[in-house]
Amino acid sequence: MQLKTKNIQQLLTVATCSLLGSAASAEESNAWSFDTALMYYGETDRVSAVEGIISGTKEYSDGHFLNLKLTLDTLTGASANGAVPQDKVQTFTRPSGKGSYDIGAGQTPLDDTFQDTRVQLNAQWTQPLAENYLGSAGVHFSKEYDYLSLGFNGNIARELNQKNTTLSLGVAYSYDSIDPEGGVPIAFTPMLHKGTEPNRLSGSENKTTIDMLFGVTQIINRRMLMQLNYSYSQVDGYLSDPFKVVSVVNDNGEALTHLYENRPDSRTKQSVFWQTKYHLTDSVIDFSYRYMWDDWDISSHTFDLRYNIPLSGSYFEPHVRYYIQSAAEFYRPFMMENEALDFASADYRIGEMDGLTLGVKYGMPLENNTEVSFRFELFKQTPTNPGYEKPGILANLELYESIDAVIFQINYSF
Known about the structure:
This is DUF3570 domain-containing protein. By secondary structure, the chain is mainly β. It has a single domain, classed as Porin (Beta Barrel), CATH 2.40.160. The protein contains one helix and 23 strands. It has a 16-stranded antiparallel barrel. It has a three-stranded mixed beta sheet with strand order 15-14-20, with no helix packed on it. Strand 4 and strand 5 form a beta hairpin. The longest helix is centred in the first third of the chain and has 12 residues.
């Protein structure tokens, strides 16, 4: 099976719109086409999420496309607050500053009242600008209980080399505002009940993000397509997590107090991404690699492999993804008594870790250019010790608990 011209053009359009999501491919008519998805993500004894997406694309005359997308998701369950486990029961304050919860001896401190609902709207317009030039512009709106995000993006692509090469440039800007219940905690102040100490600020905090992407997509031959991207991201403003704390322990590893974390107010991220799709006689191999680094001293490698195997009237696609990440320079699983630091966070998401995803997708084309597909994946994330000695009682406690999750998704295109 060879690469067809229509499939190539769809892939190139996706490449130019990759900053804030890709436009779905439309049929060659003025009718709407829709992609819908329902996904469940569930961690063992932790967070679970249900997400629904509907994306509609309409193709107008002369290659003009309008894409509208609605995303709804809900998150519930327990989230790690960053504190270390102890050999006795611990009591923590709720994120709102009202009420408390107990964590048993030897258990990872989890706040089991984590709950949120998010609504996101995206709109993207794509059209030819001149001969061999394609432009795209879009906006997005996202709202959670305590979080608001607004943004826009613009992309331009240039085809050359008899349309075998596409150069793309994209820029996106977003403004985010966070207003946590109970107020924004003051960095390095103790986790206490609301009103007991002046450790929370009134009003909201915000951050801004500027993303840039430079890409090259190349048709190597009738069977191979290759893409290479470089992206740059600058984030400024409030970057701490208002719900995370860092435990302060003595020489015996006993927690004396728990302080709200503090992160730098800027972050510069860069990444390179390489992807190759190759059509064998019948099947398709899709391999990609991403390397990311930033000025927080985090670097990561992501390897992703998909193998699309046609069956009789359907297809089967195994998937393997491996991720490895180094820790931020200010990541600390705990702080020692009387230790003075400018920044510190015990959030495992910016710590040293690796992650493995194993999954499979099964799809069935139906009548009238419709399709249904099912995806099932198992995910395991394993935080590791970046080199800190565990004093006293912490030596016998698990500070880097692994996370197991399942992912199930149904897609229907019509």
